[in-house]
Amino acid sequence: xxxxxxxxxxxxxxxxxxxxxxxxVILMVIFAIYTVIALPxxxxxxxxxxxxxxxxxxxxxxxxxxxxxxxxxxxxxxxxVSTEDGKMKKVVTDLSADSKSIKMTYTFNFNAxxxxxxxxxxxxxxxxxxxxxxxxxxxxxxxxKITIYQGGASAQQNIRxxxxxxxxxxxxxxxxxxxxxxxxxxxxxxxxxxxxxITVTGTTFEKDSDINVQFVxxxxxxxxxxxxxxxxxxTISLMWGTPIALAFGLIGSLGTLILTMIIAAIGAWYGGxxxxxxxxxxxxxxxxxxxxxxIMVGTFFSRSIWVILGTAILxxxxxxxxxxxRAIFMQIRESGYIEAAKAYGASDFRIIFRxxxxxxxxLLIPGLISSVPSFVFLxxxxxxxxxxxxxxxxxxxxxxxxxxxxALFKGYYYWMVEPAVLLMxxxxxxxxxxxxxxxxxxxxxxxx
Amino acid sequence: MADKPLLLxxxxxxxxxxxTGVVRAVDHVNFSLDYNKAVVVVGESGxxxxxxxxxxxxxxxxNVDTYSGKVYLExxxxxxxxxxxxxxxxxxxxxxxxxxxxxxxxxxxxKVGEQVAEPALIHMGVTKTEAIDxxxxxxxxxxVPEVFIDRYPFELSGGMRQRVAIAMALVTSPNLxxxxxxTSALDVLTQANIFNVLKRIxxxxxxxxxxxxHDIATSSELADEVAVMYAGQIVExxxxxxxxxxxxxxxxxxxxxxxxxxxxxxxxxxxxxxxPSLVDLPKGCRFSARCPLKFNRCVEDPPVIVKDGRxxxxxxxx
Lengths: 448, 318
Fold this sequence. Notes:
The complex is a heterodimer. Chain A is α+β, with helices and mostly antiparallel strands. Chain A has helices at 2-12, 16-38, 41-49, 52-55, 165-170, 176-180, 234-270, 272-287, 290-301, 305-317, 320-333, 336-343, 348-370, 372-387, 395-404, 407-410, 413-441, and strands spanning 79-82, 89-94, 100-110, 118-126, 133-139, 145-152, 158-160, 194-204, 210-218. Chain A has a five-stranded antiparallel sheet with strand order 2-3-8-5-6. Chain A is 54% helix and 15% strand. The model of chain A has no long low-confidence stretch (mean pLDDT 88). Chain B has one domain (7-94, 174-317): P-loop containing nucleotide triphosphate hydrolases (Rossmann fold). Chain B has helices at 49-57, 83-89, 112-123, 128-142, 158-170, 188-205, 216-219, 240-245, 250-257; strands at 7-18, 21-33, 38-42, 64-73, 76-77, 95-98, 176-180, 208-212, 225-230, 233-239, 304-307, 310-313. In chain B, the strands form two sheets. Chain B has an eight-stranded mixed sheet with strand order 6-7-8-3-9-10-12-11, sandwiched between helices. A four-stranded antiparallel sheet of chain B has the order 2-1-4-5. The radius of gyration of chain B is 20 Å and the shape is globular. The model of chain B has no long low-confidence stretch (mean pLDDT 86).
């Protein structure tokens, strides 16, 4: 058996498509394993369904950062820094026994040809009764200092620059963002490139009072995969889509093929009414529509991915495949060694599982591999139709979200293209490997 | 036990249903076989020899029309057993079989060692290692080198495969082995070898054989008794010595005359015509249409004549 496997591998190596296919499949498996380890399920679900508290730092509808490579007009990249992570400088000077002056600065290079969505400051202040006083100033590359906010800061004070009255009054004709990041010397709106500095000067009036601030720059591009309508980082669903798609595809295809094979073998071996019943069920199932039944189950019963998977497997067992397997088993059933096995008293169970089914396995492997994509696509199809598992982040769910929010109409192509490309690559990988395996295991096809 | 024969077949009937009618493949067959004896069953193709073995081992196809009679194995009526009892108590325990075309009776995806061990695993409740030890012993008996245990059937020559099939029949040490044309499709040297193996097994293990063959000459060395089948019936059952010296039934005589002889100038004879169709049998003696000694009474069904322990179905001896 090991030798046959070895020679099969040697045989597989002769097909470039098999190499490409297996590289894709292996990379996907590695990526899936990495995802499950690096971003455990509970953490992924928190990040995916956590709510605004988790996502507030991300811009909305932001394409991935690498889209800048293909653009002549660069988009501003999102980032966030805080005094707590040390990237924002914090200098504390004592004014008196109870009072401190805290100066927090951060300089960043703004080099884009478009304006950011927004800029925000999130304060985390500690005090008993007396609120600290803060003074927020932005210094532009040309030296102009613009005061954005002056006043008390509560424990959870947020300053949204686009809605600050000072800025709105200062820039009556344009938006605060356009005003803040434009070159005032130009007639038309032109972003002013260079180093900007945000300076937050706070004064506390209590002994243990402290000020911490997080500075969030909502650019128009974000991260590796971009964000969706909920400011969610799409890498989460792209990453978690991989193990889910692989698990769904492999379980679906393995479950279907193994059950089909066993049922076909039982039918072929016992014959009579058992075989008749299996064949009649198959014929009825063949005329039943597959997807509508799944949609019905999803609508009326459960949208859990496992229920859908189970139903899909059940419906896929009794298909044309069972007939072709049965035909092959009928042929094997009549061979001399099966009659010999019957003669030496092998039980029906032994004949089916030890003699009939092992003959089938080489024929099964290519089918197993090439039917994986159909299950992966099935999951995506159901998700696109709005019947995806509501909990899990999957590729299909992403496409569904993108579709619901008119991503293509509004130009958020990344949102739909990313999962679609991954789906296509998955399908391609398994199909290429499957077709090559088919040639290796079914030598008759080689002539073609 | 000694007073009872190892195998007693009493009025065994096996008819098949086909589109053209009922095929009477085994038609009221009686014979018995003692411990450590070999009976050789000869006859033309299609006379029901293989069906007889199938009827004895109850390996029935789906289109059985009638299956009746009694088969006593070591005194027990095995025909009353149900399928499961029969599988566990008779097959390979009481008697085993080397099937026709034994070369194809080995599973191509299982190593021959494991294949031979299968009956032992099924019937003797042994572990796999014990079974393989047993296989090693059986391979010695039949003259297969031990290294073949780890080979696949396609790596073996025809003769070796035949020996492996015999080893498989021996592995549970049954008292009776049915061999269905064990040497067809083998060269004469290998045939002789196989018969030597069988002779040795008979001597060393005391096994009885039902040997179905076309090869009358070679099988004469092994035979204690000879049964001649014609059109589903045993037309002659005779002691081997007596049979080879003087066959009784006209069909047997013709059959013996068709065996080529080395030192005589005599051309091998043949029998004109064909055996009757088993669907549409003649009313009288089934051989009457081809019999050179046919006379009027032959249109009646011939009697079963028993004389000096010889059984013959012919009016000549009435």
